[in-house]
Amino acid sequence: MSIQIENLSYKYGQPAGEKVEALQDISCAIAAGDFVGIMGHTGCGKTTLIQLLAGLRAPTSGRIYINGEDINAKGYDRNRLRQTVGVMFQNPEYQLFATTVEKDVAFGLKYSGLRGQEVTARVRWALETMGFDFEKVRNQSPLALSGGEKRRVAIAGVIATRPQILIFDEPIAGLDPYSRENFLQFVTQMNQAGTTIIMVSHNMEALAEYTQHLLVLEKGRLIDAGPTREVFIRLKQRKDGAFGQTAAQKIVTLLAERELKLPPAVVTYGDLLAALKHELTGGGRG
Amino acid sequence: MRSLPTGQYLPGHSFLHQLDARVKILGLFLLMAAVIGASSVQGYVLVLMVVAICIQLSRLPLRCVFASVRRVCWFLLVIWLMNALFFAAEDALFSWGIFQLSRGGMRQGFRVVSNVVLILLLGNLLTMTTLPTQVTTALESLIKPLKLIGVPTEEVAMIISVAIQFIPTLMEEAELIKMAQIARGARFESKKLAERAASFLPLVVPIFISAFRRAEELALAMEARGYRNAKNRTKRKKEPLERHDYGALAVCALICLVQFLLR
Amino acid sequence: MSKMSSVKRSMLTAVCIGLCVVLPMAFHSIPNAGSILLPMHIPVLLCGLICGWSFGLLCGLAGPLLSSLLTGMPPMAYLPSMLVELAAYGLVCGLMINLVHTKKLYADLYISLVVALIAGRIVAGVARALIFAAGRYSMAAWITSYFVTSWPGLVIQLIFIPAIVVALMKARLIPERYPVR
């Protein structure tokens, strides 16, 4: 499922009449099966962009095509869009409401065309994918679970419809390191199975390590887009340092101050290790 | 971040805009009493003139003042019909089953509708010339006398001011929850009432849970900071009423008095 | 539901008042949600049940008042009868839940709710009759129409409010009424 965004703009209406521009003239393309990160400061329009992609808001101007079809065109099937695009917003644990975990996860399947046993099987798959023991958890109240468990149930509810595009808004904020690693592994698996992933995050390491492409938003504008590594190298060169750098990039900078020059393409820990190995085995002097 | 809704307030510098909010609220009550108390033709002429003068004093565009009346005009027609058709009177023009159209009923309906319209207009004048925050501050000071009968007015004022501060946050969260559930497949278009009603549960339950979570966090933070009660809150500076405020209040009281003398 | 500090009750009341303003706005874009759901009634009834009669009464008065000031709904002319109705809901709900102890949560909730909903409608009906028609106007017609036109809202309140109370208990945001020992 490819996504094509053309000249997308969105303005929030204010009661006093003035309009606040949340997104300005954004154009980009996301290929099927890609893993795309979106970064930017708080209030730069990331969440608005996600809501537009999921068809939850209509753009002020511009178009969004999913698999070549304009999702805001008249007659476009909203139900199909909901089954195609899965969205997980910030604090997804706030969306739980049902009396049992099973019912909550099955909520989105009501319009999927699945019936009876198929629904149960799908719910089982979603919960097991998220590391739950289905029989143990199915009749519990989702509201009585721990914070981390609630979040996993919420994710299960989103993936239950098996969307071909999965969008996550700050999915790893507030997670402990173990859950974070688990989540990122899970997303990578989904991606390898063919799902297009879009992930908004403030976590530079996670973006550098896991995403293939990166979109950078600043004050509602798309200021950079491209393969993740290239974008990070460009961001590091910015004079104001507005987006910071990854830990590996910082180490490279510190080493440079101590007269050890590593190539500028070092972005992740993996890169750093490879570069250091190269340096230590004498390759660098070559 | 969303801001607090400003309601129907239209900025301006008219006499009504500059009047103290406490006076406007008390005046509204007095004039409402005058409207409800009107029973004679002279009485209605009086309140009609008073409302017209108030509208003139507000210097608001007539279109805005009457907008809310236009919105409810169908409802007003229903009220009039119900009164006209159900009024038990001897001078029925015709009757059919439980319905009977009577002159008395029509007159009664007219009276009810004009009461509603006049009170609606007076209420509009208050909310259109006064910021919501001014109204709540005024109410805060107007409920102070209730302390004498044991109402903890400081506590009440604190709760209301927290409620107002919470509104933008709650609005934002409600909006996000609505989007999350729609993205998950919530639908609201079912024709069957029961189904339609049930479709609201996924919205209402999470909205309450997130709101109550906020309340709990705030309560804990307040207790952690040693909050006991509202008494040690910084007091607002007292703003004395000016001469035109007293004048306006006296005029309203006079109108109310005349109205009851006219009965 | 009596083991909460007064600060917590105050804050819960504050968010309930806030929700009286927010819920009608949140459902504004969904057609007919307002008339089916009666969104302003829910926080008031809950506030009475959870925080007690005095807080319920405050919520029933302050909620519609604030909403009218901030959003223009309900319009000022209907505010008095709405204030009376909602104040009665909050007050009676809070009183009943204190009086009724059947050892069964749902029974307590339903008894309190039913009594409050009936009391509130009677009070509102009487208030309306007094405001709209002085004296001879047929009150029976008013009260019948009052109950008949608002029955869907009544049913929904009976379903939703216990569901929300139980959800809040499950989420440990309010204390269990009958804790398992």
Structural write-up:
The complex is a heterotrimer of chains A (286), B (263) and C (181). By secondary structure, chain A is of the alpha/beta class. Chain A contains 11 helices and 10 strands. Chain A has one domain (3-245): P-loop containing nucleotide triphosphate hydrolases (Rossmann fold, 3-Layer(aba) Sandwich). Chain B is mainly alpha-helical and 263 residues long. Chain B has 2 domains: 15-130 and 240-262, no CATH class; 147-232, no CATH class. Helices cover 70% and strands 3% of the residues of chain B. Chain B has a two-stranded antiparallel ribbon. In chain B, a hairpin with a 2-residue loop joins strand 1 (92-96) and strand 2. Chain B starts with 14 loop residues before the first helix and ends with a helix. With 181 residues, chain C is mostly helical. Chain C has 8 helices and no strands. Chain C has helices spanning 6-26, 33-37, 41-51, 53-71, 79-99, 105-132, 139-149, 151-170. The two termini of chain C are 16 Å apart. The model of chain C has no long low-confidence stretch (mean pLDDT 81). The chains are: A alpha/beta (286), B mainly alpha (263), C mainly alpha (181). The interface between B and C is large, with 70 and 61 residues.
Summarize the structure.
With 263 residues, chain B is mainly α. Chain B contains 11 helices and 2 strands, in the order αααααββαααααα.
Features:
heterotrimer; B: 263 residues; mainly alpha; 2 domains; two-stranded antiparallel ribbon; 11 helices; globular; C: 181 residues; Arp2/3 complex 21 kDa subunit ARPC3; 8 helices; 75% helix; 0% strand
Distance between the termini of chain C: 16 Å
Helix content estimate of chain C = over 70%
Total tally of structural domains of chain A: 1
The parts of chain A where pLDDT drops under 50 for at least 5 residues are none
- In oligomeric terms, what are we looking at? heterotrimer
Strand portion of chain A, in percent? 15-25%
The main sheet of chain A orders its strands as 6-7-8-3-9-10
Mean pLDDT of chain A: 86
Helix percentage range of chain A:
25-40%
Which fold name fills CATH's third level, the topology of chain C?
Answer: Arp2/3 complex 21 kDa subunit ARPC3
Radius of gyration of chain A: 21 Å
